[in-house]
Amino acid sequence: MYSLLWRALPGPWIVKLILCLILIAAAVYLLMEYVFPVVAPFMPFNDATIEEGG
Amino acid sequence: MDQPMTRRERRERERAAEAAESARTTGPAADPRAPSRPDAGAQHAGTQQAGAQQQPAPAGDQRPVIRPASRAPGRTGSGPAHHPAAPQGSPAQAPYTPTFPSAGSTDGWSTSQGQGTVRGPSTAQSAFAASASAPGERGDARSAATASAAGAGRTDRRRKTEYEPLGPVRGTIRAFGELCITAGMVLILFVVWQLWWTDIAANRDNEVLADQLITDWQENPDNELPDDPDTPVVADPVDENTGFGIMYVPRFGESYYRTVAEGVSMEPVLNRMGVGRYPSSAMPGEVGNFSVAGHRVTYGKPLNQIHELRPGDEIVVQTGDGFYTYTFRNFEIVLPDATEVLAAVPTMPDYKGKDRIMTLTACNPMFSARERYVAYAELTDWTPAGDGAPASIADSPAYEQVGGDA
After folding, report:
1. Where are the coiled-coil regions (chain B) (predicted)?
2. Looking at the domain assignment, is residue B2 inside a domain?
3. CB of B2 within 8 Å of any CB in chain A?
């Protein structure tokens, strides 16, 4: 899987490494900015309110 | 070789041994290019002899010709065969290396070649024929001469073929393993985000919102004093998801302050605007129960130390109208659906209270939503905005950081 990615990236290994780091940074950003805030409300340790049926 | 063998090297060696074995057992009839080969027993002895004499690796007559051409591209490539610690095998292997689809090692060939060097030209030819049968099984029937003439293209070909031995089963297993590792990394990242990054983001939002509130209050100084100085001014509720106050709790830290917003929805109030007021409850200073909820962990954890409150601790809520000082009385741990704690007289919903109560709710225990920690406080002091902050927070770093009297 990652070996396929490594081979698909162009250039010498240093360029591949930089591209890989960019891809990792993009994935981390997307996760932290968009995915995790959507998932977080389903986590069982965040509810602080008192409400009916809560 | 004194170096440890990799898996690929071992496979190549085994394959070479098989090829030599098959060539020996099938006999000369199966290989027309080895007509002068002696009997099978002699061939077998020759193989063993070659194994014993591999270390000297005498240079054949082709060495001065082949060596410069074959080593030049080999230096640019990578792999155990080109390791400088293994010089004795390289010259002798060189002519046969290209016939390998996988160029990881040619240890097996050095055996055959060594046999040829020891036994003479005719035996060397038979050994070559035996060795050439292995690539032929894999669909690569190029002759040694053609392959050795390929020269420059050899390096690229080696690099690509290094990945080939991974079959579908092994490839699937590896992909599955990589997916598992990736999922683990994502989970770790989620924990980091939840426990660390949400605090950073919420603290930043807290500062921004507090600055905004202070600025708004300075622009609209409608601090008309009430008729009775002892009766606090009660502001009208603001729109939901809007900040309207700043809460200071000296017990939570010298520099502790959190904004108070309307509503108790996770987004955006509790996650980004400090604590949130239950819309059904009273406003600060109003007769009744001014109830707020806040995270105890994550998202800036405004009520992280709610269990540290001691009777007599002051909770100051600043709004555009003034400072409302509540004094902590007692706490309670209830189930999440115990809405009676939000009543005007807490836990007694049937009564219409006459006291000015403040109720703080947070999850309990930490990192769980099983219960709620409820803290009760009672209004003990009120200061109009024009009179400045009460003494309990006037000199605190939190009040100075917010903007204070500026």
Report:
1. none
2. no
3. no
